[in-house]
Specification:
A: alpha+beta; 2 domains; B: six-stranded mixed β-sheet; four-stranded antiparallel β-sheet; about 30% helix
């Protein structure tokens, strides 16, 4: 391919956009909006993931030992727990230690009052069990609840073993739900952008029908006829991704912190965490939509 | 070399445009294709350009067998021909020079080749002094000469002129056919589709008359009403 031809294609691509300025702008805005929605969901999910990783205490189960269980059995229970799959750390907290910890929550006067009741300490001996994988927490909970010597009254109330796995699971399903919404929104927006680009290129093609007919008569190959329209699609795709990237940066850096208030100052990931992947994703989506839509809208005109 | 052998063309709506046409046109010939409206003249040129496919028979244009040609080869077949239309089909937003250069540009010729070839062609059709004009600034005859320059610019072996004198006055019609005869002398095969009796009779070239999709007569040095 000659250099002069490449310049010709690029010039024709820009001319096509200028000739149909309104539809081209509509395509660019719709495609950029789709990418912006995608990018926003992406950053939100990345932040949720990062926040969940920091919630180590979610991977903890407390197991309360029955008051009548003797010391030997209590120790044995500790060994049984350590032998279980997925368990990473087991800490024993005696009822006395638990009482001490509880007292630390109060001021001196209150503590003095409570200390009188030390013999009535209602807190049970407790095992604090840390585990690795939240997905394998259900069998672990089942195994723990079957251990002999644990507090059955609390078990009946659904508080023994006690975990925050439910919250973790809810956060996980919330995250998955958002991901699904993100995927569907992305698909819908991409389809819409795709048709808008197709329409834009079709209008250009229609306005240049005569030109295409003459090109065919003088022996232009299909690739030569299509190239300016593909260039037009590429320009639309690249402009859309550049606009989307700029807006995403502004939204994430300046608008989202205001919206999220205190949370943003502690937990929001820096934009540089996503900058490269977002740039690549936007450019890929833009180029794909631009090239495929322009090629498809040209098909009809390429029949010899 | 153009050769129609038992060529028939039926359109999808059932209209039979050509029936068992047998016609042979040698290299460098000048042929008038005549006939009333709907006789099949335009279909014949469309088949030559492979704008339409033949329904049966065989059609050869130089080294191309059109009943077998692959779609990717059609542009190269078309580069063997230059076509001129009744309505000129020039680009209003391009100058005379750009209109002619466009035909070279679309087949991927270099700027250097374009800058060398286009002035030569504009000189041949006596439009060198009007190369910067736009089509609407030219007369009908001049526009038609631009169309001829564009048809010739890629040095095709065959020139097909579809009613080339339809939009110009009688004097200009004579000049256009005269130009076609000069082109024919450059060793090009020239096919002129027309229904202008006076022109056909005046130039006394080979005349192929089509009626109802069949060749009614084919005479060298013939007249429009020769049959």
């Amino acid at each position: 391919m000659r250099i002069s031809n490449i310049f010709y294609f690029i010039k024709q691509g820009f001319l096509g956009i200028i000739r149909n300025a309104v539809m081209s702008s509509a395509s660019i805005l719709i495609l950029a909006s789709s990418m912006l929605v995608l990018g926003t969901f992406w950053t939100v999910i990345a932040n949720i993931n990062s926040y969940m990783d920091s919630l180590d205490e979610l991977n903890v189960i407390l197991l309360y030992i029955a008051p009548e269980t003797d010391e030997a059995r209590t120790e044995q229970i500790g060994d049984e727990i350590r032998a279980m799959d997925n368990v990473t750390n087991v800490t024993f907290l005696s009822k006395e230690e638990a009482w001490e910890l509880e007292l630390q929550k109060y001021d001196e006067t209150q503590r003095a009052i409570f200390e009188q009741f030390v013999k009535l300490n209602p807190l049970p001996d407790t095992y604090k069990i840390e585990f690795a994988e939240i997905e394998k927490s259900t069998p672990l909970l089942f195994q723990l609840s079957s251990i002999e010597g644990i507090d059955l009254d609390l078990k009946e109330q659904g508080k023994n073993p006690k975990s925050v796995i439910d919250i973790a699971n809810k956060v996980e399903s919330f995250k998955n739900g958002i991901s699904m919404i993100c995927v569907w929104l992305l698909i819908i927006l991409l389809v819409v952008s795709f048709f808008v680009i197709m329409n834009t290129i079709r209008l250009t093609v229609f306005s240049r029908k005569q030109e295409i007919i003459i090109m065919r008569y003088v022996g232009a190959t299909s690739s030569f006829i299509v190239a300016p329209f593909v260039v037009e699609g590429i320009i639309i795709g690249v402009l859309s991704s550049a606009i989307a990237y700029g807006l995403q940066y502004y939204l994430y850096t300046y608008v989202m912190p205001d919206m999220l208030g205190n949370f943003a100052s502690t937990g929001l990931l820096p934009f540089s965490e996503f900058s490269r992947i977002l740039a690549i994703a936007f450019l890929t989506v833009g180029l794909f939509a631009g090239i495929v839509a322009s090629s498809m809208s040209m098909r009809k005109y390429l029949k010899a | 070399m153009i050769e129609f052998k038992n060529v028939s063309k039926t359109y999808p709506n059932g209209t039979v445009a050509l029936r068992n046409v047998n016609l042979s046109i040698a290299d460098g010939e000048f042929v008038f294709i005549v006939g009333h409206s709907g006789a099949g003249k335009t279909t014949l040129t469309k088949l030559l350009m492979r704008e339409e496919c033949i329904t049966s028979g065989s059609l050869r244009v130089n080294n191309y067998r059109l009943e077998k040609i692959r779609r990717s080869k059609v542009p190269y077949l078309r580069r063997e021909m230059g076509v001129v239309f009744q309505d000129f089909r020039l680009f209003d937003n391009m100058t005379v020079y750009e209109n002619v250069a466009f035909a070279m540009r679309v087949i991927g010729e270099s700027n250097r080749a374009i800058n060398k070839r286009v002035p030569y062609l504009l000189n041949l059709v006596n439009l060198a002094d009007k190369c910067d004009r736009f089509p609407h600034e030219l007369s009908g005859g001049e526009q038609q000469r631009v169309a001829f320059a564009r048809a010739l610019v890629n040095n095709p072996k065959i020139i097909i002129a579809d009613e080339p004198t339809g939009n110009v006055d009688p004097q200009m019609s004579l000049e256009i056919i005269d130009l076609l005869i000069r082109i024919n002398k450059l060793d090009k095969t020239v096919i002129v589709v027309t229904h202008e009796k006076s022109l056909v009779d005046y130039f006394k070239k080979r005349v192929v008359c089509i009626g109802d999709g069949c060749i009614v007569s084919d005479k060298i040095g013939g007249m429009y009403d020769a049959h």
